[in-house]
Amino acid sequence: SDMNNTGYKALRVTQLDADYLTNQAFRIIKREIKGSLLNKPFTRLLHYEQEIDVLLQFIIWKYSLQKSDSTVGQLYFKMKYVSPNGISERQKLFYFFLNSTRYWIVNRQFDILHVFEKLFKNPHITLIVSKLGTLFQLAEFVNYVLFIKNGEYLNLLDRLFNWKTIRLDKPSPRYIDYTYMRKELLWSKITETIFCVLPFINFPKLYNFFMLIIKYFGFVNSLTDNLELNCNICGEKPTNPQVSNCDHLFCWYCIKGNLLADNSYRCPTCGKNILSIEQFVFEPKI
Fold it and tell me: Keyword annotations for this protein (predicted)?
């Protein structure tokens, strides 16, 4: 890592981790405070949630950025902001003001638009504000692309104030073991292959083929042994009974499903090709 006047250059991934940690710390504290406000005496304060968030941001700012030139996440990763001309207290306060104002506007945008429409009575005010928001998002995107390229100025405010992030200690080299990743990729490819192949397998035909082999070698008796009036596929009393050209009985659903799945379906009892089926009428012996 290159060392500058006051520290070492911070890695991009470390800066992103620090920013994520800062946001998570804010969300956790906010969640706890919001849970406390759900009690009956404080429920009215929920209408001012955005304003309470700004107050919370001020408290976090006071004990992090103002005190040590570092955000909460940067403190954890032993990083800080530096500027060629130094960072003054006025700059820190202005930084907080712009950051919290942006947050407040984003969360109160509908209320703000409603007020503007009443004040200016201009039907195009919503469109104008919307375009300004789009331009700001585009600027943030361009800034992020530049950050990925150069590793400096994670957000627009950092670029505006010319604040760069440095590490106070020399970063240790990262050793990455790809064993887990290789296993995940291998398993992913195996599952993709299985799911691609499965639709092309004719399972009924495969099942019937193995059943014929098993019965041919005498491992099992026919399902219809001593059960001449049962379905020769499922072994149960046939529903809408059908008789085949080989004089064996089947459920309509059993035989029709197998014939649709396999044009050359063979009778599981005698092994003959089933060429036709017809309705079976039971004639009791008198």
Answer: Membrane, Metal-binding, Peroxisome, Protein transport, Transferase, Transmembrane, Transmembrane helix, Transport, Ubl conjugation pathway, Zinc, Zinc-finger
